[in-house]
Amino acid sequence: MSKNDYPVTNAIRFLRAHKIPFIPHLYAYEEHGGTAHSAACLSVDEHCVIKTIVLQNEQKKGLICLMHGDKQISTRNLARQLNCKHIEPATPQQANKWTGYLVGGTSPFGCKTTLPVYVETSILTLPEIYINGGKRGFLVQINPQDLKSLNTQSVEVAV
């Protein structure tokens, strides 16, 4: 894929600025298709497709949690680990305000607002991951170890 074959989003600018190698993957976005659809389009295991979930705590402070596409986040366990009373998904409007991305195209890279990023621990053991590149229908393939260099925090919150 040449430089002109994929969008240059804030996420791509961020990866380039931090010298994180990536392989771009475009696919036909499907509303409510989720990670199952993107995994099928790219012929990869859904477990390796990582979803970016924007959450907020009881003080309405935002955070991002990265989770395997075929797993769910236990907000109760996450709240317990972060010493919060309550964590819930942010509204699509609030998520867009914090990140600058639309739901379905949210990337943990290059957000408008710096939010803490928490990564399900088991993601870091995968050989490669596919994560949103900042646009619907656009994933980037990276080494999960590169997430560590971005000041992410490892948590165990998979269900």
* Rg on CA atoms, Å: 15 Å
Give the domain tally: 1
Low-pLDDT runs of 5+ residues are none
Assembly annotation: single chain
The percent range for helix content is: 10-25%
What fraction of residues sit in β-strands?
A: 25-35%
The CATH architecture name reads Alpha-Beta Complex
**Form type:** globular
Instruction: Give the SSE order as H and E letters.
Output: HEHEEHEHEEEHE
User: How far apart are the first and last residues' alpha carbons, in Å?
Assistant: 36 Å
Describe the protein.
This protein has 159 residues and is of the alpha/beta class. The protein has a single domain (3-155), classed as YbaK/aminoacyl-tRNA synthetase-associated domain (YbaK protein). It has 5 helices and 8 strands. The chain has helices at residues 10-17, 34-42, 75-81, 92-99, 145-148; strands spanning 23-26, 49-57, 62-68, 87-89, 117-120, 129-135, 138-142, 153-155. Strands 1, 2, 3, 4, 5, 6, 7 and 8 form an 8-stranded mixed β-sheet that branches. Strand 6 (129-135) and strand 7 form a beta hairpin. The longest helix has 9 residues, at 34-42. It is globular and about 45 Å long.
